[in-house]
Write a structure and sequence with these properties.
This is Methyltransferase type 11 domain-containing protein. This protein is an alpha/beta fold. The protein has a domain of 243 residues: Vaccinia Virus protein VP39 (Rossmann fold), CATH 3.40.50. 24% of the residues lie in helices and 19% in strands. It is built from nine helices and eleven strands. It has an eight-stranded mixed beta sheet with strand order 4-10-11-9-8-5-6-7. Strands 1-2-3 form a three-stranded antiparallel beta sheet, with no helix packed on it.
């Protein structure tokens, strides 16, 4: 287990340790101003060599072995979770109060009117789309299909009028098969051009995905909606059921929400807490909570009922490192070359926009 600190991030929280976060195989040291500090390096940890995400290799700190590592999105990875990272090894720790909301009225009334808006800014959307693209390309590389392009079936939970999926073109290594959107407003779903079909369903009333077959999707995505679920355990268990072997669940979230509909513990949490909350949903969904209620849970007496195990549960920070604006030209330089002044203003504005974009995190669970 490694206690890690990620330095020079976007908010003060990143300058304090992430309690009990461990890398199962490797400890990533990223280039630039970002670094991880480890308390007790071991031979099972390693470092990343190179900045080309497609050609990263990982070498154990003792120099004796190369460890296969992530080839895409590696610069966004901040930590990986295992069972030692949570206070209770198997028992669901959250109470009804944790999942309570200020507005517990019927959600269908709240979402009755279509909202053709996005809940993250343009730069966050661009980062999410790029993350999806990298993930889909990874799935294509891992596929044993004989077809030229890997066909990816996607379930978009809590969907709306846009899914932020990358555009497929002639250079893509994948193509879309079924893209099913499940949401709360039919007008929004009908307006989504990337969906091949849609389901109108309130997961807070019925968390079961009964209309969907086992192992029918390569990807299950949920964008900035996990904070509204009052039955997250059941939803995550259903996500696992409908995922194909080697499929991935991608749960993204930021700092915006409808506060009256978000669960209590989400509103009280900082970004690190929220990362841990979402990761813990996947962790606890691995166990039979009904069996644990009968006395198995954390006693380690052999009664724990394991339903399944995720291959990995990883957290990603999609917001880029803060950039510095170029130095402002002197008045003399601007007078002699007015175009230089306009160029500086445009560049400084772009840097400020990038630095002020919405934070966005993704928890990725691999089946």
């Amino acid at each position: 287990m490694a206690r890690i600190v990620r330095q020079n991030r976007h908010s003060p929280q990143w300058r304090r340790p992430v309690a009990l976060v461990s890398f199962s195989l490797v400890a990533l040291l990223l280039t630039g101003t970002t670094s991880f500090a480890f308390t007790t390096p071991t031979a099972s940890q390693g470092i990343v060599h190179g900045t080309n995400k497609k050609n990263i290799r990982l070498t154990a700190l003792d120099g004796k072995a190369e460890i296969p590592g992530p080839t895409r999105n590696a610069d966004k990875l901040i930590c990986s979770f295992d069972e030692t990272d949570f206070s209770g090894r198997t028992s669901w720790p959250y109470t009804a109060a944790d999942l309570n909301r200020l507005d517990n009225t019927d959600d269908s009334k709240f979402y009755d009117s279509p909202r053709m808006v996005t809940h993250i800014d343009d730069m966050a959307i661009e980062s999410l789309t790029e993350f999806y693209k990298n993930t889909f390309e990874e799935l294509a590389e891992q596929s044993d299909e004989e077809a030229t392009k890997k066909t990816i079936d996607i379930l978009d939970l809590c969907s709306s009028w846009v899914s932020h999926l990358p555009v497929v073109d002639a250079t893509s290594s994948f193509q879309y098969g079924n893209v099913v959107g499940l949401g709360m407003n039919q007008e929004e779903l009908n307006a989504n051009p990337q969906l091949t079909s849609s389901i109108l369903q309130n997961l807070n009333i019925d968390p079961k995905l009964s209309s969907l077959d086992d192992e029918s999707f390569d990807v299950v995505a949920m964008t900035v909606s996990i904070d509204y679920l009052i039955k997250p355990l059941e939803v995550i268990q259903e996500i696992k059921r409908v995922l194909k072997p080697n499929g991935v669940a991608l749960i993204s979230f930021g700092d915006r929400c409808f506060p009256t509909k978000a669960v209590a513990m989400w509103l009280q949490a900082d970004p690190i807490d929220r990362i841990t909350i979402v990761a813990s949903y996947f962790h606890y969904a691995q166990y039979d909570q009904e069996a644990n209620k009968e006395g198995g849970d954390d006693s380690n007496d052999g009664k724990d009922e394991v339903l399944y195990k995720w291959k990995s549960i990883d957290a990603y920070d999609l917001k880029d490192e803060p950039q510095e604006a170029p130095p402002k030209p002197s008045m003399g330089e601007i007078m002699s070359n007015p175009a230089l002044g306009f160029a500086w203003m445009n560049t400084a504005s772009a840097v400020q926009k990038a630095n002020n974009c919405d934070p966005l995190f993704v928890i990725k669970a691999s089946k």
